[in-house]
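Encode chain A's predicted structure.
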Amino acid sequence: MEAENYFKSENVAKIENTIGDFSIQPISDFGYTIYPHIKGLGDKTKLELEVIAREATEIEVREDNPDGQLLFTCSVPKNDIYTLQKREFNTTNLKTTQSLCFVFKGIKNKSFTLNRFQFKN
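Encoded structure for chain A:
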């Protein structure tokens, strides 16, 4: 799923990335994006993110909104090189169809870019 295809966001910018596509970039701590009614999550055990992390970043994956139930957290390490890298995280508490909210923490000036994500087995 392309990260810029969110339904609602706060303190997040859409930017052109290094591969001529679009990504999102949180502009402050606790910025968030909401992705409604994602289907087929019930059997997924992994979340793969394609990111550039100039600083270590934490993403809380919550149900429905920024104050929703915390489902799991992704601790994204700082990139060694300035290019999009794939990072994989274990998922928990997913339902077959669910609205998810990504809340970004540890954000400094343009320190994190999310290009796309996918749920996998």
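The chain has a mean pLDDT of 95.
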